[in-house]
Amino acid sequence: MMTWKLDDMGLGLPGKKDLFIEADLMSPLDRIANVSILKQHEVDKLYKVENKPAFSSSEQLCFLVRPRIKNMRYIANLVNADKLAGRTRKYKVIFSPQKFYACEMVLEEEGIYGDVSCDEWAFSLLPLDVDLLSMELPEFFRDYFLEGDQRWINTVAQALHLLSTLYGPFPNCYGIGRYAKMSHELWRKLEEEEDGETKGRRPEIGHIFLLDRDVDFVTALCSQVVYEGLVDDTFRIKCGSVDFGPEVTSSDKSLKVLLNAEDKVFHEIRNEHFSNVFSFLSQKARNLQAQYDRRRGMDIKQMKNFVSQELKGLKQEHRLLSLHIGACESIMKKKTKQDFQELIKTEHALLEGFNIRESTSYIEEHIDRQVSPIESLRLMCLLSITENGLIPKDYRSLKTQYLQSYGPEHLLTFSNLRRAGLLTEQAPGDTLTAVESKVSKLVTDKAAGKITDAFSSLAKRSNFRAISKKLNLIPRVDGEYDLKVPRDMAYVFSGAYVPLSCRIIEQVLERRGWQGLDEVVRLLNCSELVFTDRSKEDKASSESLRLILVVFLGGCTFSEISALRFLGREKGYRFIFLTTAVTNSARLMEAMSEVKA
Which InterPro entries match (predicted)? Predict the structure, then answer.
């Protein structure tokens, strides 16, 4: 889809050089240029940018870093140490995805601005699969949803602009969320400035959706049960590849495996509920064995054809099959140890609003047993969002138990979660009695404006229960939900819950806009933050109108991707995903945590 040259990212230092690279840029760079390609461009040694000093003997140093202040200090310490030692070298700093003025200011303050040359690697779209693009900006979530830092708006707008220059204008654009709105506005300005690039072109993509992650925290906080989501939760998929350890490979070595549509075994099971995967793999193994057994009774010519045409493919399939069976066994062992069934049962109870006391007791036990600090936080956040905040008594009790169990160093994390709206305490004004008292005052007050004022204290809450009811997020099923033949997107959470983000997309597509969704938008606290930008569709073919680009700002989960793939198959759409990064519940909690693992 897209290609890069190393010179495009500014690695244009002729001669031997050492490359210092930031940890979270290693995986994206590896997808584009592995070590052997770097060696061809005369990169001698690779160093990781970290807190300890690095000793390089090269006369040329190249730094590939994110535009962060701490990275500038790291580079400044290295350059200034060389100055003190009377050593002269060439230094090049490459910022990815863009250079920020604040970074240049720090280099100037440190007195090295004239000693280094700066460049940008405008890397904003990494194709991870046939339908998945990532900006590989995991820090986006914390930067915006916690710190309120808007630095990445330009990066998002530039990525959208690049896509529209490649695939023509988007006839229908829908968005929800503050960041979605800001990114859309800046993107449109870029389009106006370069008017003519897409003018007159036939659109190839009919619809685009922009969604902020905070519109739907619930989905991201749930345990994943589709195969690809479970692999991510268990082994961590990084940049489309995963490291399978010896427990999966059945050898003493780990193996890095690329997970995409080219892996034929993975492609068939990635979107399946985990309960169906084992039976599929065992059937696949039997079919494979039957193909091997065909060798018996072959004459020399048939055997020659078999070896030259089929054997290599069968061996590759056998290797992949063994890996995925090993991964399933490893997941099963870990989940059995964690009593996964009980965990899922608690999550479903929280989503449905039943047995809240029992669920709270389960979370308390989870904390007391010190199962996992990240998992305990996740369950507390899920309880808080589904219940519109915790009642003060429960909030204090759970917080105290957590700090006693996992340590007081987590205190700042609670402050972060509160600021982001992930773990909140119900204010006295949110109790039923307080609401009733406000309503009784309104009876005698005829000024309509006062109604809004009276309920303003309720406006910043999650309202999950009301939204869930409005959009029918909890399916009502007679008998067992058939996970082998799913009936709706709820299968990605065992039939218990339809992802809110995916339901919103489904509803907007059906209605061709936000009409009739006013109440949902109000409950999402996004009345001022939804938009529809529609241009003439006369140039859009019926085929392009079936193609939909969904942009997740703040990360998306594999469960959401699987759900929308299912919707696409059911309704005849084809979805393409662009995300700031692929995320899951653990990554969200780690982004908010002040205690680094």
Answer: Sec-1-like_dom1, Sec-1-like_dom3a, Sec1-like, Sec1-like_dom2, Sec1-like_sf, VPS33_dom3b
Q: How many domains does the structure of the chain reveal?
A: 4
The residue type at 495? G
Nearest to 264 by CA among 321, 212, 327: 321
Instruction: State the CB neighbour count (10 A cutoff) for residue 461.
Output: 19
CATH of the domain at 245: 3.90.830.10
Cα distance from N-terminal residue to C-terminal residue, the chain: 36
Q: For residue 146, how many other CB atoms are within 10 A of its CB? A: 16
Element (H, E) at 130: none
pLDDT of residue 312 exceeding 60 = no
Cis peptide before 53 (omega within 30 of 0): no
In angstroms, the CA 141 to CA 146 distance is 8
Asked, for residue 558, whether it belongs to a domain, the answer is yes
Q: Which helix (H) or strand (E) holds 368?
A: helix 356-368
Q: If we measure between CA atoms, which residue out of 412, 416, 406, 573 comes closest to residue 489?
A: 573
Cβ-count burial 420-449 (b if 16+ within 10 Å, e if not): bbbbbbbeeebeeeeeeebeeeeeeeeeee
Structure tokens, 393: 């008594």
Q: What digits encode the pLDDT tens for the residues 316-365? A: 778 888 999 999 999 999 888 778 999 999 999 999 999 999 999 999 99
Q: Specify whether 150 is located in the same domain as 73.
A: no
Q: How confident is the model at residue 450 (pLDDT cuts 50, 70, 90)?
A: very low
Give the domain-ending residue among 97, 121, 145: 121
Q: Which CATH number goes with the domain that contains 43?
A: 3.40.50.2060
Residue 251 lies in a domain: yes
Boundary of a domain, candidates 378, 398, 431: 431
Same domain, 334 and 415: no
> How does strand 255-258 pair with strand 241-244?
antiparallel
Phi, psi of 70 (to 5 degrees): -60, -30
| Confidence bin at 445 (pLDDT 50/70/90) | very low
- Band (24; pLDDT cuts 50, 70, 90): confident
pTM for the model:
0.88
> CA 374 to CA 422: how far, in whole Å?
13
Q: Indicate the pLDDT class of residue 46, thresholds 50, 70 and 90.
A: confident
Task: State both tokens at 170.
Answer: 């988007």
CA–CA dist 97, 89 (Å, integer): 25
Give a yes or no: residue 201 inside a domain.
yes
Strand duo 530-534 + 172-176: pairing: antiparallel
Segments forming the whole domain that contains residue 579: 128-216+500-592
